[in-house]
Design a protein that fits this description.
The complex is a heterotrimer of chains A (about 240), B (about 220) and C (about 230).
Chain A: E1 4-13, E2 16-26, E3 31-35, H1 42-49, E4 57-62, E5 65-66, H2 72-81, E6 82-85, H3 97-108, H4 113-126, H5 142-154, E7 160-164, H6 172-186, E8 191-195, H7 199-205, E9 208-213, E10 216-221, H8 223-228, H9 233-244
Parallel strand pairs in A: 3-8, 3-9, 6-7, 7-8
Antiparallel strand pairs in A: 1-2, 1-4, 4-5, 9-10
Helix pairs in contact in A: 3-4, 3-5, 4-5, 5-6
Chain B: H1 8-11, H2 14-48, H3 51-65, H4 69-79, H5 89-125, H6 131-161, H7 173-184, H8 187-215
Chain C: H1 2-12, H2 15-51, H3 58-71, H4 76-90, H5 96-121, H6 125-133, H7 138-168, H8 180-189, H9 194-225
Helix pairs in contact in C: 2-3, 2-5, 2-8, 2-9, 3-5, 4-5, 5-7, 6-7, 7-9, 8-9
Classes of the chains: A alpha/beta (about 240), B mainly alpha (about 220), C mainly alpha (about 230).
The complex binds adenosine-5'-triphosphate and magnesium ion (MG).
Chain lengths: ~240, ~220, ~230
Amino acid sequence: MGHLEIRNLHCSYGADDILKSVDLSVDRGEVVSLIGPSGSGKSTLLRSLIGLTPPRMGTVELDGEEINYRNRQSLRHLRDKMAIVFQQYNLFQNMNVFRNVTVAPLKIKKRDKGAVEKTATELLDRVGIGDKHQAYPDELSGGQQQRVAIARALALAPEILLLDEVTSALDPERVNEVLDVIRDLTRDGITMLIVSHEMSFVKEVSTRVAMMDAGSVVEVGPPEQIFDAPKEQRTRDFVGKILRH
Amino acid sequence: MEYDFQFAKVFTELPYLLGGAWLTIQIAFIAFWGGAFLGIFGAIGKVYGGAIARGAIGAYVVFFTNTPALVQIFFLFYALPEAGIVLNPLTAVLIGMVLNSAAYLTDILRAGIISVRKAEIEAALTIGMRPLQVLSYVMLPHVAKTLFAPLSNFFVWLMLGSSIAALFAVEELTGRAINISTSNLRTIETFVVTASIYILLTIIASLFLSFIGRTVFRVKAKVM
Amino acid sequence: MFERIIEEAPRFFTYYNLMFVLGAMWRTLLMTLVGCSIGFTVGLGLAVLRRTSAAWLRPARYAAILYVETFRRIPFLVVLFIVLYFIQPIYSGASLLAIATVAVCLMSTAFLSEIIRAGLESVPRQQMESAEVLNFHPGQTLAWVILPQAWKVILPPAVAFVVMFVKDTSLASQLGVVELTYAGKILVNKGFSPLLGFGAILAAYFILSYPLSRLGAHLETRLGTSRNT
Ligand SMILES: Nc1ncnc2c1ncn2[C@@H]1O[C@H](COP(=O)(O)OP(=O)(O)OP(=O)(O)O)[C@@H](O)[C@H]1O
Ligand SMILES: [Mg+2]
């Protein structure tokens, strides 16, 4: 039994079916990357997993327990264990860095202040923002903001981290500082689902890669398979196009 | 307390009210175009004028935008006779509304002039265009983009604002509503119907103006 | 005509008249501020309501839209009459000042609700989603994330609206509320020159409105360039 079991997941915006039967099983501690053409539904999959665009059909199991996306309690429970970082505008613009990281554990989880602040300080040190606790998001570079966003996502000690193109809004020279932080996290054994267009990075950190096209996962396998010996024609086309660039 | 609504008594007066609505539109039109005429000079003076002109125009705008149109018209209507100038009510209202809207339009049109300045710079950079092309492809889009929505909203606002004419016994929509209600004593019904006519009138104006904006000026303006 | 002014001036500029005008000024301010404060609160409620998505709130959302779109399209004078003739038969003890204030509330709710809605919409959607996935309640998201970012967009046009309403309350003179405009009429009816009477009233409005409009302009430039907008 996997850490996260996705079966026959369907999702739609209005009348448009975006996800058409997604199946994916992720084991504890795995780093699974989602690749695929623009509009194939990668973001939608992550958003529906965390309940921002609730699935229309299908099941998601976390540790063997099915999540009911229409139930507040179930959703809260899910979000205690799962965190997401978006491409942009992650940080609360009205709060400084330290507040961004501590607000949820303090105000929502009502955890002990001393412990929360200690954890936050450690996390911010780890992502290399130790010297900017008082800065506001718009005083930071995009790369720094994303690293704070990752620290904030980790502040509640999630078991699963979803990352949706967290580097694609960044200047090229800022990409690596964020990738370094993610690379570092993969050693912690936290389960990760990563959407990324940085193919060499995907190759390096993923235990498995899932190829998505037109709303479903068409091929899953270790990076060597997907990039060097894809079984599906669509994967071959996509990988061929990407690697040629 | 039970209140027995009798709208029928108002509906028989509908043609009379709609006649008033026509005057409302006319007043708004005169206030708008009269104000725009003065406002263009005001705006040009405010941008290109010398220190004295700028100061005088600024004072005019600040005075008229910080005092109520109603009191301005009272002043015209009651104080000017002291100086031997007697105005009839409609004239006083029209002059007051034109002077008032000139102040607001000076501010609005100033933004347009500033945008033309930017457009001129762009036009200078756009080599190989004939003057007419520069006008229609560079200048007009700039001006339309900055001015169309605020001007349209201001016109709709004037349609509603022209109701103060009723207080000087001008028989526009609100004035006629007052007339009816004093004779049929169905005040609430009369004013509810009147309000509905205003709603309809402004919706039609908004739709019409955004249509003009889209088709003639190629701007997607959301009018009130 | 100037002879008349010079002749009347000593009789006009008296302590009694000053207090009379100040009292009227106070009522103008009271109507505007009380009406707009209530309008702001209710308008905030309507703006928030319009952002909800629950199916059972749909009728309420439509009602809110209908309300806002309706009251922005009726002249204040007409609203004043409707409120007057609605309230008087039901509650004959209502003071004219209270009735006019109710009319200000009705109007300002509609306009301020639109201003607030635009402000709330200026906050990127991801801010709400970030809060939601951290298990914030909708109320917490509103209070801790959205409003602190939106108020900078809301405040300048809201102040401009209040400034506008200081002037619009002059129409309440028509009901007989002794606010500034009515005070001007009384002064003129007492025999003072309209030049003096209405001139003083224009000055009084200016004293109320100008500092507020400066404040609005100041906020607009200050908040427009400040960080974390
Ligand atoms: N809010 C929305 N409303 C309607 N359709 C949407 C919405 N968001 C996304 N879509 C549609 O859903 C489809 C999948 O979008 P999604 O963002 O999941 O793709 P993606 O794989 O993440 O692409 P990209 O690599 O460009 O980020 C697209 O066709 C998109 O147009
Ligand atoms: Mg995406």
